[in-house]
Amino acid sequence: MLRILFVVPSLNHGGSERVTATLATGLQQAGCQVGVLTFTSGGEYRTHLHPAVTCHYYEHRVKTFFERVRAVNHLTHLSNNYDIVVSAMHLITDQVVYACQVINRLRQRHKAHVAMVHTRLSTLLALYNRPGKYHRVRYLYPRFDRVITVGQGVKEDLEELCGTMNNVEVIRNPLDHALILEKARDTLDDAFATAPFFVNVARMDALKDQRTLLNAYRQFTDVMGPTQHLVILGDGALRADLEAQCQELGLSTVHFLGYVDNPWKYVARATALLSTSLLEGLPLNISEAMLCGTPVIATDCPCGPAELLENGAGGYLCEPGDAAAFARAMVQVTQHPEEAREKAAHASRFAAQFALPAVAKQYISTFQEVLSLTN
Questions:
Q1: Alpha-carbon distance 81 to 33, whole Å?
Q2: Which among 121, 198, 358, 363 is least buried, having the fewest CB atoms inside 10 angstroms?
Q3: What angle do CA 19, 25, 29 make, to 5 degrees?
Q4: Are 303 and 280 in contact (CB under 8 A)?
Q5: What's the total number of domains in the chain?
Q6: What residue numbers bound the domain in which 192 lies?
Q7: What are the pLDDT tens digits along the chain (375 aa)?
Q8: Residues 100 and 211 in one domain
Q9: CA–CA dist 114, 2 (Å, integer)
Q10: pTM, 2 dp
């Protein structure tokens, strides 16, 4: 039985956090002993964990050097009970897990240490203007026992930063097909049960670029009228700004619903899922829409949407920040539903390979291989 510990800052809202919860559950169901260490208790996705997954809390800050030393000591002690330690959030937990790796090797403990990378790091560092972190990326990732990226584009970007690495592997994000499809069948108990609508599922920050989304929706209504509502699921620092933008644009059919327990019932019934992101790794919202058979309109940002939608065969791709092109795609989906359904059916077949049991099996095989190499 493999004993696997995931380290993640929290299990609050976010794609990486949901991937961690889903993967931990899948590995537990596959017969592994799984634990999840977070730096805060609670979190929306904690309820997504299998009941047998062990939750560990380290409720202290991990920002200064001495705070990280204390966290490393805690993790090193906890790792005595596990074979594999996984940093499940790039740049945040990587340093703590790597330091744990160094200590375990000095103490000749037979452990494997793995890092997961969910997004294109070069673009992320550039967007947030963090030049000082390039050195950390180049130093840390080649030294892990294994680095798992969620897509080929993420892998290529990482190797551009660090040089060719023989410890990198691509394993795509898992989807809990049974859970998603069951939740997708839940009824809508509000006005959207009858009104057609587009849906956007994302946190409200600059990287998700909902400003462009609202501008595109305004241009869509100029052509088609308010024939489709726009439902936005999620929350974030820019919510008040986006609501103000709706007022300025005179948009009365945009609905900010915040975080909801079941986004899939909206996704499954939407005319299309809309994603205007400037940066993605392998976006869960697109994968889940594909699984639900919902058409997808997404920006061709680095680097996940094109990989998932197979360069447009499974959906519609537009240039990031181009509200006019995005609006034209929305009109296309509305006026040509048969074409949209054909693309969605193609995408749904592609999404079948992300089933949780299959992805968990890939992880188990990788973990077993890495553990054998650390002897």
A1: 10
A2: 358
A3: 145
A4: yes
A5: 2
A6: 178-353
A7: 899 999 999 998 788 899 999 999 999 999 999 999 999 888 888 888 999 999 999 988 888 889 999 999 999 999 999 999 999 988 779 999 999 999 999 999 999 999 999 988 888 888 777 777 888 899 999 999 999 999 999 999 999 999 999 999 999 999 999 999 999 999 987 777 778 999 999 999 999 999 999 999 999 999 999 999 999 999 999 999 999 999 999 999 999 999 998 999 999 999 999 999 998 888 999 999 999 999 999 999 988 899 999 999 999 999 999 999 999 999 999 999 999 999 999 999 999 999 999 999 999 999 999 999 886
A8: no
A9: 14
A10: 0.89
**Contact (Cβ atoms closer than 8 angstroms) between residue 119 and residue 154:** yes
CATH of the domain at 65: 3.40.50.2000
For the packed helices 210-224 and 239-249, what is the interaxial angle rounded to 10 degrees? 20
Q: Specify the DSSP class assigned to residue 132.
A: T
> Nearest to residue 289, comparing CAs of 233, 336, 335, 236?
233
Alpha carbon distance 84, 239 (integer Å) = 39
Q: What are phi and psi of 72, to 5 degrees?
A: -65, -45
Q: Verify that 169 and 117 share a domain, yes or no.
A: yes
* Maximum separation of any 2 CA atoms in the chain, in Å: 68
Cis check: omega of the bond before 292, within 30 degrees of 0: no
Q: Tell me the angle at which helices 133-140 and 152-162 cross, rounded to the nearest 10 degrees.
A: 100
- Strands 254-258, 84-87: pairing is unpaired
**Pair (336, 363) in one structural domain:** no
